[in-house]
């Protein structure tokens, strides 16, 4: 029993790290993966580098997205699309359509 009380703080620390660091990170990675899989033509997106555009086409061979910007069409990897910023952009576009 004495050995258990010695290891209790270490075990508790691993539990706290799992629930506050590892689990939320895995959940966010899963959400980003589903977001990238659910992209469709016509979605307005922002890349992680800050490029704004509209999805024109997909390249399943390279797992990439072709985005139309003011400068022309650019190919980006699906993982380079920012989930948070793109969702905010699409929500504001829907709000404008409703008015």
TrEMBL record:
It is found in: Cell membrane. SMART domains: YajC (SM01323). InterPro entries: Preprotein_translocase_YajC. The keyword Cell membrane applies. It is a single-pass membrane protein. Its main location: membrane. Pfam families: YajC. Keywords: Cell membrane, Membrane, Protein transport, Translocation, Transmembrane, Transmembrane helix, Transport. The chain crosses the membrane at residues 6-22. NCBIfam families: yajC. Belongs to the YajC family. This is Sec translocon accessory complex subunit YajC. It comes from Christiangramia sediminicola. The gene is yajC.
